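Appendix B, example 12.
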Amino acid sequence: MAVGSTAQAASIPGLFTTGVDNFGIALGDGASDPHYSIVSPSGPGIVVSQSNIPGDWLSNSSSSRWIWQQFDGQPTNVTRTFRTTFDLTGLNPSTASIAGTWAADNFLDQILINGVSIGTIPNNPAGSNFISFSPFNINSGFQAGINTLDFVVRDAGFISGFRVGEISGTAQPISPSPSVPEPSTILGLGVLGLGAFCPRKLSQGKKSKQDN
């Protein structure tokens, strides 16, 4: 299969911020996030209740909310990996890229695409990554079909939280290979061509005899 050089990039489906439903609408307090699950111990990410969010955290919005293992931001002083998946079927993985923003109480240790780290993640020295969003970009490591995107978050305090504020991606569609005629079709076309040729030769022969 080949990708046309002039193909227009398409949006990667299945990428969502944290704390929203399948339509991108913010979930309620204590709801299970359908797009971000905790790898170990396994379970869904839970929307942290507004009443438990400290005043120095980024405010929730209509497009993303804080999540953790429990609605009250517990347990603390632990590391949790949040996983989301997306499907590149019909898209060329070598042309894929994803960009977004994250926030965490307190540290984002790694981002992994299909189990491979994208490299060092800059964190605020004081661990105050909950006061503003930080950007991330992924430009390699994609594969055909289902892909996994992991965020490894480490807490050091009395309440925990993780948030993806923005996320989007593009990839070029895979163009179908040019169709090749079946051998039987080629043979049939050859026979038809021969049939068209032979009567013409015969008629030319008869005409020559008549002229003589």
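The longest helix spans residues 183-211. The mean pLDDT is 88.
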